[in-house]
Design goal:
The structure is a single chain. It contains 8 helices and 4 strands, in the order ααββαααβαβαα. It has about 220 residues and is mainly alpha-helical. It has one domain. Strand 1 and strand 2 form a beta hairpin. Helix 2 packs antiparallel against helix 5.
Length: about 220
């Protein structure tokens, strides 16, 4: 996306007159207890698989560690460190500038198919979404929740319009409405933001449970299980 296109995108403000944010302290308490208990159980169960995956990543590319740590923007704009299994080469961030012209997403988001920076084991981890599992530690620490808008990069948030920043009203999550959309990379940035605003207005325990089950179904279907 060119600078001119990005500036044009930023100046087009969607109609959010129907958006309404309501604090839900009881739901937030239930959500935090659920996140804390389930993430702890997952950490215990996945401890050995985490070690095995880490070793495989190191064998595939020894130039960097198995865990990728990056700044992300959380609730109310607070910055936190997100954890993921490393799926790209050690100098992936340095190569980003030369790949920007191939960006397949609109808005302040970068995604391309067949990214040349992805390692062999990284392709497998991404195809199964296993690379996202270390975010369970973020959930346990309270940086994230199982359900909520996906956490954005600080440089992306800097380009947000006021309507886009509404997604920062709640704790970011591991999955969301956008995450379970078929061919989600074909979803426009504005549609993505609208899905996040929809979740913020409608959020409740039943929606969270449905999204968690939909995510598991989506992953199993995607992997052919």
């Amino acid at each position: 996306m060119t600078l001119e296109q990005l500036q044009e995108h930023k100046n087009i403000e969607p109609d959010i007159s129907s958006f309404e944010y309501r604090p839900k302290p009881v739901f937030d308490l239930f959500k935090r207890l659920f996140d804390l208990v389930v993430s702890f159980v997952c950490i215990v169960i996945l401890a050995i698989p985490f070690v095995i995956i880490s070793v495989l990543i190191m064998i595939d590319d020894r130039k960097a560690g198995p865990i990728f740590v990056q700044d992300r923007v959380g609730k109310n704009g607070k910055i936190f460190k997100i954890y993921k299994f490393r799926t790209m080469c050690a100098n992936a961030e340095e190569k980003l500038a030369e790949l920007q012209k191939f960006n397949e997403m609109d808005g302040p988001v970068f995604k391309i198919g067949n990214d040349p920076r992805i390692t062999k084991i990284g392709k497998l981890l991404r195809a199964s979404n296993i690379d996202e599992l270390p975010q369970i530690f973020n959930i346990f620490l309270g940086h994230m929740s199982f359900v909520g808008p996906r956490p954005a990069l600080p440089k992306e948030v800097e380009q947000y319009r006021p309507s886009d920043k509404l997604r920062l009203l709640v704790i970011p999550g591991l999955t969301c409405y956008w995450q379970v959309v078929k061919n989600r990379n074909s979803v426009s940035f504005d549609e993505w933001m609208e899905l996040d605003r929809k979740y913020i207005m409608e959020r409740n325990a039943w929606i969270d449970i449905k999204l968690i089950f939909k995510t598991f179904f989506f992953l199993f279907k995607k992997s052919g299980c």
